[in-house]
Amino acid sequence: MTISADTDQRTHLPIIDHARGKRSPVTCRLKCADACLGPECNTSSNATFRSIAQTAFSRRALLGGAAAGAVVIATTSLERPTAAVAAPAATGLPFTPIAPVDASVDSFVVPEGYTWAPLIRWGDPVLAGAPVFDIVAQSPAAQAAQFGYNNDYIDIIVDAGGLTGVLVANHEYVNPDIMFAPSSDPAELRRRSEIYKAAQGMSVVEVVRDAPGAPWRTVPGGRRNRRFTVDSPFALTGPAAGSELVRTAADPEGRTVLGTLGNCAGGTTPWGTVLSGEENFNGYFSSPATTPSRARYGFRQRPTSTGWETWDKRFNGAEPGYENEEHRFGYIVEVDPLDPASTPVKHTALGRFKHEGANVSIAEDGRVVAYMGDDERGDYLYKFVSKHRVNTGSGPGARKQNLKLLSEGDLFVARFTGDSPASEIDGSGRLPQDGRFDGTGEWIALTRKGESAVPGMSVEQVLVHTRLAADLVGATKMDRCEDVEPHPTTGRVYIACTNNSRRGIDAPVDEANPRLSNRDGHVIELVESEGQGGTRFAWSILLLCGDPSGAALTYFAGFPPAMVSPISCPDNVAFDAEGNLWISTDGAPSTIRKNDGLFKVPLEGPDRGRVQQFLSVPRDAETCGPIIRVEDGMVLVAVQHPGEDGSFAAPNSLFPDYGASGAGTARAPRPSVVQVWRA
Ligand code: FEO
Ligand code: CA
Ligand code: CA
Q1: 28 lines ligand 1 (CB under 6 A)
Q2: Does the beta carbon of 375 lie inside 6 Å of ligand 1?
Q3: So which residues are the signal peptide here (predicted)?
């Protein structure tokens, strides 16, 4: 089906601003409950960014290694690295960048010399006894034992020995229109509504391979395999656990939540657990916007895409006894994939907002720091600093201690300050006279030592109504912070700001968000000035994304724009063992209708800023959860929402089965984890 410039002909949904170019209104409706359709939820008048001369504190550097034993490169400022900084050695993932692939093409495209195959697809068996996938005979029980829909974050925790491990994957949301043929039978629709609960959440799947660098295979029924659905128990931790704000009729103790929602990006901790961000959780509730908090988080009373509110009291915000159910979602979830008997947790100490994900590093003093984005236009960047230090021992006692690190600590929100005159930030993307969009910033405490740091709010209120707390302290309104990840060796933090079509309408441009109607997004590089546990930082914009041959101004860390791959809407970020940044995208430049991709960006040496496209995902899909293993010559990505704009009868994509027949295949798009390796 063809989508016109202004309207999806099938659903007659208006193309919303951030979707111009490629992203579909179907994605917006199903994934984000049309969060971009109206003005920003953030109507606060908190201090917006002041463009002042750079403050006096030094940019002394302070870069902690992320993982225990990591090599620390002593980079001391945000100045452009020179050739004196060692450039990465010969790569184990050599490639010639691919050309952007037209948005009508339903192919998974890799560079010459590489091959690809799905590792696991929607519906493949996970738990023992799971039936072979049959798209026309799905049931809630079958789906609860099979791999879920729309995988986003992925990682493989490799066991000692290197030939076995566990794959952990998020399942963010479902697309009823391409999972099932149309139906108006109420009993059938109710049955499907139960399948949607089973298709979301997370999967843990054991994997094996014959040798390092060889492709992985899944182990259906593996000892550590698990499925977490919208009915699986999660334990609340931290200061808001057990508080009145999270108690419901079904859980008067306020300590056990059923399910996880909107699991988007994530991170793997140094102690081997996986963090997952509960992002667009509001969209699963029908709740009248009767309170400032409900309005600020985008709750509305209306039919949802899953229909749970019609039969499960938990999702009807008007149901007596369940008004607080919505306060039990919007957290960072931690799963221990190595312990199949463990109960996953939701950490209230890290705040409640539309968590994209969380990435943890270890500060110089051994405390752990989690960096987090709230992915909504005009929302904020956060970090959490633990109270306790990591235990670097290898025994079960150390692991038990580390599993509690994210339950106690301080939560901060970021305020950015530019160092150029406001008059030089004209909204076009033109660099100010000092040659950089850059400046300093401050982490403002929302909680301190287990207490509220926000006058007039209790600690429980701060952690449940975190957006309202951050509004009060003058945080900087950002262009949708997606993945935020510290570099494993330099400690610099990379922040993907995916786009903000209403920049300049709901909030003015500033030096950290310098483009009007920021259609293509940007990436910020942040250096902690007092160590990762500190409260001061320096920052600079690394990339102003877009099509360098288009009309919009772009910037690639000073690298010649004519020599880069066009890139738009940066979403997930990852690093390889050679120190390069990798970016997966959720949208293409408006000037060229192309499929989403995965891009490599060197951060040091003469190639700093040289964006190179590695792969392209099929029609309508988004590239997620990249895993880059230079040492194995392998890349893995999650292909989310392929064929999103099609229908069951007329699929827009047949990825990844592409017409194969036989048990377990389908003539339909199937979100899948794909591995790419050197042929
Ligand atoms: Fe689920 Fe912010 O992307
Ligand atoms: Ca500047
Ligand atoms: Ca994302």
Answers
A1: no
A2: yes
A3: none
